[in-house]
Amino acid sequence: MALESVEKGGRPFACIVARDGEIIAESPNLVEQTQDPTAHAEVMAIRKACMTLKTEHLTGCDIYILASPCPMCLGALYYCSPDRVIYITTREEYSSYYKDNRKYFELETFYSEYGKPAEERRLPMIHKPNGESINVYKRWEQLNRA
């Protein structure tokens, strides 16, 4: 799937979500095709699987990916709670063949960038406190108490 995507001008990544040996969803990376920087293979396959299974939790599923996940996809993987993630290629193995550098980070340094306090990151992050904003979360809690 990833090689087919590359042959069609896409990026070299793919993801499969499976449960009990059955493929629930699959997707190549679709960033180039959709002009959507969040359309990574993992995100797209997770979306499809969750819609198919009508849940936001992929417990009971295994997720297979071509390469170790980027920070965005790692977050999505944690959020959807699969039983395990199996990846085939490490960033170190593919980095001499593929670069995906962005304005504020390079894949090789992103994890250290992400761990910095907000005010030390390359992407300007400005905290503007507003006392009223917490009310949204208070209301959510009221409506969702068990």
UniProtKB/TrEMBL annotation:
GO molecular function annotations of the record: guanosine deaminase activity; zinc ion binding
Is the keyword Metal-binding assigned to this protein? yes
What residue stretches are annotated with the CMP/dCMP-type deaminase domain?
1-108
What UniProt keywords are attached to this protein's entry?
Metal-binding, Zinc
- What superkingdom does the record give? Bacteria
Q: Which CDD domains match?
A: nucleoside_deaminase (cd01285)
Q: Is Membrane given among the entry's keywords?
A: no
Database matches in PROSITE patterns = CYT_DCMP_DEAMINASES_1, CYT_DCMP_DEAMINASES_2
GO BP annotations listed: purine nucleoside catabolic process
Xref: SUPFAM superfamilies: Cytidine deaminase-like
Q: Which PANTHER family is this protein grouped with?
A: CMP_DCMP-TYPE DEAMINASE DOMAIN-CONTAINING PROTEIN, CYTOSINE DEAMINASE FAMILY MEMBER
Descriptive protein name: Guanine deaminase
**Species, as recorded:** Scopulibacillus darangshiensis
